[in-house]
From TrEMBL:
PANTHER family linked to this entry: HYDROLASE, PUTATIVE (AFU_ORTHOLOGUE AFUA_2G14860)-RELATED, MONOACYLGLYCEROL LIPASE
Limits of the AB hydrolase-1 domain: 27-145
Name of protein: Pimeloyl-ACP methyl ester carboxylesterase
InterPro entries noted in UniProt: AB_hydrolase_1, AB_hydrolase_fold, AB_hydrolase_sf
């Protein structure tokens, strides 16, 4: 565990590498989702297996989440992409990285790849999508609903979550309630810049999309595969938006396969260029 000062934010980071001390084959950055999420989602799923498979694994808490700093403002999508950029610069990660994002984390990861195509080896979207006008409307609707429920009766809402989900989920929801109540997150997200289809299409690195079969986001798979030059999608029947936690082994297997395949392609291209 480490606290890293990027000059913009104090960021809580967990970094893992091969246990045998060997040189990692590549760096993968795992980006978590919004409000009730943190790097723990990866630490307790496929972060450690990825490190055991020879990867340099970077996990971090987004601003306002987990143990990272909680400024009063600065929560737009571009702010989060700026944080990711600053973190990698501070950690001296200069080569292309594999970006994996769950839910909102995938939107951040894709935005980073669109901004820095030379620094993205691949992108994996887990129950996620690029930032479009439709994404912005949906995100705003979710955040406005959360604000309404908190304004109506926060204690009642948290009690319902504890009774119908779990006490741990209720604890996370309490932190999310504080975040959305005490910062400009909802306003900043509403005004976040989105990508045009041409900007999305310009992401040429391999993209993998993993979706739960019972999730509305699974309907995006034909659009993604048609729009992106190198895109493959996987739909897991019987799962919803929480597919990362519900089917961590299967999801992690698909992501690791994508990373290893991309690494092999990069190495082959490098070897061919040297000849």
């Amino acid at each position: 565990m480490a606290m890293v000062d990027t000059g913009q934010l104090r960021v809580h980071v967990q970094r893992m590498g091969p246990r045998d001390g060997s040189v990692p084959t590549a760096t993968v950055v795992l980006v978590h989702g919004l409000l009730t999420d943190s790097l723990a989602s990866y630490y307790f799923t496929f972060g450690p297996p990825f490190a055991a498979a020879g990867l340099d694994v970077i996990m971090f808490d987004l601003r306002g989440h987990g143990r990272s700093g909680r400024p009063a403002s600065g929560y737009s999508l571009d702010d989060n992409i700026d944080d990711l950029e600053a973190l990698l610069d501070t950690l001296a990660v200069t080569g292309p990285v594999h970006l994996v994002g769950n839910s909102y984390g995938g939107t951040i990861a894709f935005g980073y790849a669109a901004r820095h195509p030379e620094r993205a080896a691949s992108v994996c979207l887990i129950e996620s999508e690029p930032a479009t006008a439709s994404w912005s409307r949906n995100m705003d609707g979710v955040l406005q609903q959360v604000l309404h429920e908190l304004a109506f009766n926060e204690d009642l809402a948290l009690a319902w979550i504890a009774d119908n989900r779990s006490h741990n989920t209720a604890r996370l929801a309490k932190g999310a309630a504080r975040l959305i109540r005490e910062t400009t997150l909802a306003q900043d997200m509403r005004t976040s810049a989105v990508l045009t289809e041409d900007q999305i299409r310009a992401v040429h690195c391999p993209v993998l999309g993993v979706y739960g079969g019972d999730s509305e986001l699974a309907l995006l798979t034909p659009w993604l595969e048609k729009l992106l030059p190198d895109c493959r999608t996987v739909v897991l029947p019987g799962h919803e938006h929480s597919v990362l936690v519900e089917a961590a082994g299967v999801v992690g297997g698909h992501v690791l396969e994508q990373i290893q395949k991309t690494n092999a392609q990069i190495q082959a291209a490098t070897a061919a260029a040297v000849r």
